Amino acid sequence: MPHLPDVVLWSIPAFVLLTVLELVSYRFHPDEDEQGYAVKDTATSLTMGLGSLLFDAGWKIPIVAIYSFLYELTPLRVPVLWWTVPLMLLAQDFFYYWSHRGHHVIRVLWACHVVHHSSRHYNLSTALRQPWTSATSWVFFVPMVLAGVHPAALAFCSSANLVYQFWIHTERIGRLPRPVEYVFNTPSHHRVHHASQGGYLDRNFGGILIVFDRLFGSFAAEAERPVYGLTKNIGTFNPLRVATHEYASIARDVRAATSWGDRLRHLAKGPGWQPAPRTEPTAPAAGPESAAA
């Protein structure tokens, strides 16, 4: 198949340049309603981004092996042509939607994705705050490999999707023209996704397109100003704790659970799930006979 470039690596200089330009823009055109940049927060985001590059290089080895094995099993083949690449990008964006949604509603997957939502700021450096355990996503894209999409073509589509999402992590861009807002994921839509208010939680999971959110009932338009971060913020800039804090929280809950069912539910239910409090049985009220006795 034709050689496909590593879109993420080629885009790193643009990431750096655009982040610097956005940072400088706050110096010359500050906005008291916008979060802007903070030194410790930005340093943590950059550290998480660099770490993700290193860890992803390791995770790719078993994932590529699994994809290659499955690709050899299927008789189907999708050629890499000028007209098939847009279709593969569309398919990858569809499965990305479900992967992203799954990482919000299944706690063991959320433990990976929570890293990206852990900043209380929203700027281009936030886009670089990536998890170190991203091997949790591969299973969602197995249907594409079984349909005959070469693993290298899937990697290209995934990288293109990730690069697209960089520019939407900003408060410096307001709403775009209505046709763009209706079809594509935009800064306005993604600000909603990163907000911690109740009405904004678990909304706007799209990667490149927002149409899947509209189709599957997870869309919310930006109305009130978003408050960024988690419903319970972690209050640390330590990269190791940022990367692992939810796994540690799951381990504590699993250890404290009183049944295997609750242990499994701590993994598979949503991030806020807790078992119902147990109530002690009450003694029956004393009747006339017992009172007389």
TrEMBL record:
GO terms for biological process: lipid biosynthetic process; membrane lipid metabolic process. Pfam families: FA_hydroxylase. The chain crosses the membrane at residues 7-26, 46-68, 80-98, 138-164. The keyword Lipid biosynthesis does not apply. It is a multi-pass membrane protein. Keywords: Lipid metabolism, Membrane, Oxidoreductase, Transmembrane, Transmembrane helix. Residues 275-293 have a biased composition (Low complexity). It comes from the Bacteria. One of its GO terms (molecular function) is iron ion binding. Residues 86-218 form the Fatty acid hydroxylase domain. It is found in: Endomembrane system. One of its GO terms (cellular component) is membrane. Residues 268-293 are annotated as: Disordered. This is Sterol desaturase/sphingolipid hydroxylase (Fatty acid hydroxylase superfamily). The lineage of its organism: Bacteria, Bacillati, Actinomycetota, Actinomycetes, Kitasatosporales.
